[in-house]
Amino acid sequence: MGKRWLNERRQDFYYRKAKQLNYRSRASFKLHQINERFGIFRPGMAVVDLGAAPGGWLQIAKERVGPQGKVVGVDLQHIAPLEGVETIRGDMTKPETVQELMSLLEGKADVVISDMSPNISGNYSIDHARSVDLCHHALEFARRTLRPGGSLVMKVFEGDMLNDLLTDIRRSFGSVRLHGPKASRSSSSEIYIVAKGYKEGGSSQAGAPGPLD
Fold first, then answer.
1. Active-site residue, selected from the candidate residues 62, 70, 155, 196
2. What pTM value is reported for the model?
3. Which residue of 58, 79, 84, 199 has the fewest CB atoms within a 10 Å radius of its CB?
4. Sheet holding 173-179, edge to edge
5. Is 30 a catalytic residue?
6. What are 118-162's pLDDT values in tens digits?
C-alpha cells in the first residue's frame, strides 16, 4: 500500500476515532449509526456476525446486547479473542461452516449482521455479482436461524442485481430498507440492507425497492 493511502487513512475521522475508542476498525461506526437509526439491538439478544474480522462489529454488538446477550462471529480470517464473544474461522459459503456456526449459536438468533465483502477483482460487474451472492448466503443463514421478528443487516455493492435481491428478502421480512451510514466512505459503492420483522415460513408481495435513508 502506498504512502498516500496510508496518509489518507490516518487523516480519516472515523479511523482516528476508532483508535481513540479502541475499536478494531472504522466499520464499527457504520453499525453504530445503523443501530442508532433503526434500533437493531436490545440487551440480552443473540447476535451472529458474518464476515466479522477484525471484530469491529462484534465489539458494537457485544456492547449493545450486554453481558446477558450472546454474540458469535465467523470469518475467513483469524479474529483475535474478544471478551464475551465466540468466534470460528471458516467460509460461510461452505455447509460445514454453517453447521459449526449454528452449533456455536446453540439456538435461535435475534439478529444476523453481515459485513462480508468479496475479494475485489477490479471488474465492478463481477464484484457486484459476488457481493450479491454473499448476501444470498447471509439471507439463507438468517432464514435458518432467526427467531420470528428478528433482523438482518448486511452490506451489498450497488448494481443491477440489487432489486432482485431485495425482492427475495421481502419474502421473509416485514420491513426492508436501504441505508448509507455517514461512516461509509463517499467513494464507496457499498450500501446496507436493513431487514426487520422476520416472518418464519412467511412470504410477502414484492414491491418497489425500499427508500434510501
1. 155
2. 0.87
3. 84
4. 85-89, 70-75, 46-50, 109-114, 146-157, 190-198, 173-179
5. no
6. 999 999 999 999 999 999 999 999 999 999 999 999 999 999 999
